[in-house]
Amino acid sequence: MLSSLFALGLGAGCSAAAEAADSSRMVRSYLALGDSYTIGQSVSPAERWLSAALHQSAPQGPFDLVTLLIGVNDQFRGYELATYRAALIPLLHDALTLAGGHAGQVVVLSIPDWGVTPFAAGQDRGAIAASIDGFNALAKQEVAALGAHWVDITPLTRDIAMGGMVAPDGLHPSGAMYARWVAATVPVVLGISPTAVSRPR
Prior knowledge:
It is a single chain. The chain is α/β, with parallel strands linked by helices. The protein has a single domain (6-191), classed as SGNH hydrolase (Rossmann fold, 3-Layer(aba) Sandwich), CATH 3.40.50.1110. The protein is 37% helix and 12% strand. It has a five-stranded mixed sheet with strand order 1-2-3-4-5, sandwiched between helices. Helix 5 links the parallel strand 4 (106-109) and strand 5. 37% of the residues are buried.
């Protein structure tokens, strides 16, 4: 649900992306905004998205990096695209504000395809995929308009044939899947301007 966001404030020591960067490009503060897919529902803390610990409090910016992963609950509940867009745009601008007004420091991830999971057994997986594609197309357009970064993790979530990519609850991603998300996101993070992430604190 778009109205139920979790905010995770992290230092550089917790960020896989920051560990990969040199000192001049270090991401020293990171905020992850999202739903249960962001917090790592049904996986151990060590395997969660960027190994983050959950904090349900109002974040205090600006942050060097802000990621946003939302929309799966809106799609699951059958919301219209117009309804999703009306809620998405303010959240994108919230992310921009939390990034100190620097759109280049905002990274938005696409909606994972829950339709391929055991949870979706007996449902029209093709219709779910088509709906998610529609939500993602809209979100990608709005992210581009903002000038932020878009990372398409949806194809990764559809590639679960190798096994071990779904958490024990049969719905959420496993630690192995989260690792694939990180691998897809790190190059984008490392491409962020060094100047943008070197503000004095």
